[in-house]
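FW: tagging you since you asked about this chain on Friday. Here's the raw sequence from the shared folder, copied in full. Didn't touch anything.
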Amino acid sequence: MKKVRCAIYTRKSSEDGLEQEFNSLHAQREACAAYIASQKHEGWLLVRDHYYDGGLSGGSLERPALQQLLADIRDGKIDQIVVYKIDRLTRSLADFAKIVDILDAAGASFVSVTQSFNTATSMGRLTLNMLLSFAQFEREVTAERIRDKIAASKRRGLWMGGQVPMGYDPDGRTLKVNEREAETIRTLYALYEQYGFIRVVKEKGDVLGLRTRRRTLSSGEIRGGGAFDRGHIHHILTNPVYAGRIRHKDQVHEGQHDAIIAPDRWDAVQLRLQGMASRIRLRKAPRRVSLLCGKIFDETGDRLTPSHSRTKKGTRLRYYVSHRLIARSGEENLDGWRLPADHLEAQVGNLARGHLASPTFAGRLCPQSGAGEIARVLHKLTDLTSGPNVKDILSLVECIEIAPGKVMLKLDSKAVAVALDIDITAMDAIALQLEAPFQLRKRGVETKIILAETPVGKDEALIRNIALAHHWMERIKAGETFGDIARNDGISKRRVQHMIDLAFLAPDIIHDVLTGKQPLGFTSDWCKSRTLPSDWQDQRALLATL
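HL: got it, structure written out here
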């Protein structure tokens, strides 16, 4: 009788309970071991090696024990994987297709103890695909439930984890005051109330020997313990946690922990900070405001800072310059961007205006709205884009990223909602993002970017590969493997593995590809070197960076 070497794989998504003497991983293994023992007459034999991943999600294949298990299968050490439930192995349909291909190539298979089906048949594979689809749906619903729970807990004033602010120690779902550090916090607030300038607070704090919290990381590395910088001081002065409050995104709720700074005193500090910022802006404001200040970044993530120079006749020339060129001036072989401000603002304004004036923009922005609402939004857009003032258009821009050959622009959802008088929750954020290619034009020492006036256009190769991926997925559901498809179609197995992810693209992304509105960097060649996430939201976030 042929022996079937069986390996048990167990997984638990959270670390809760792993420290217990008998936990979920042990329970899974016992059930699987009992099942293998019941199949002893079939020659099943349990291998000694343990494969378990504790505290790791099933949404990715990047799990140490799973990777070791797949490596042992490739090396011919394992004939069969035994799992308690299929979602312990993976919750992703795309990842499952990859695992099945590895098993088929090694002549191995897998068994789910609590879910009986035969993956050697097309019906078994279809059943498994359906189970995995529900498992992936469950994972996404669970993530939404966790986010909602965190929001509800913060509304009740509970501390939901994260880096504990200086002056406090964690105490379950709340915070308790660390008196030694709290004295440092009170001193910083008192110094600001006395002098009114963060720069002076830092200088006085250095003289008094005030130091940041000393933290020991899990790696053993020690951080902190140094002097406060101005950014850290500003963060402390504006953090509502010191007034006994909890911040969640853009909302602040009353917390259940004790305040270090009295709430009315903290509110007075905020008013003073805001007033000081306004005076500084008024004092330093040039005659021409840099409309893209704080909104524009280059491909390294470095912001482009407004700068200026003067000609011999006293004319003031404005630029946007990569911050590293200013901060590290004098260094050799340092590259970056230095773009004329007036020209760049005009180009970005025209790009945003053209995007807003597109006939399809209103429909893409409000996909669930009726014809009457879309007509109203179109009328608002016409009024907005027909005006000559570029400042109004640029006020809707949230951020711009400039990379060699392309510029990515994202509109501010809140500003657009206010300008068009629509509900922000009804908007599709993808419609607020766009990308355009550009060329560099040099005139003397000055460099300008010239945005292309035509859209990216249809990528016929990408469209064909998406269609192929859907065709291949239907064949996989019918029982074929990656190797079978490669042999029957006369192509490499690697090509099938690269392109199969395109079968799981979100419908709106496919629509953009078919209409030629996909990001410039989203090509078939790009797909060959990357794995697309199966989650549609993750796909949109990834492609938005191209």
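FW: The mean pLDDT is 82.
HL: agreed, and The longest strand covers residues 433-443.
FW: great, closing this out.
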